[in-house]
Amino acid sequence: MEKVRSFTDLIAWKEAHKLVISIYKMTEDFPRKECFGLTDQIRRAAVSISSNIAEGFSRKTGLEKKHFYYISIGSLTEVQNQLLIARDVNYLSKEKFRPLADLTLIVSRLINSLVKNIDKYNSLNKN
Question: With bands split at pLDDT 50, 70 and 90, how would you rate the model's confidence at 126?
């Protein structure tokens, strides 16, 4: 297993980045009237997920890292809510919704794994 040297090596970041790209592509089909509404909101929240993973990676202490990972989880929850809204107002078909919703669940599990690994590392170093 290779050493993680950059945030771009994190699987959580890679999957979050895929989500951002998918969100940008998906929102290109939203009505123009949504440019400063749902389109802007979901894009900003999606970018925040991978950005906070990256920022957390660069922090020195486990507490600081967890803080940014938790912010990314909050942004991910925003994206999940906004995807539901997009589906329910018929900006997003159920067929396009499902893979994005599934990807948000994958990203959530991966970010939570980052947090658990910090806790595990901290508990090992206390002994």
Answer: low
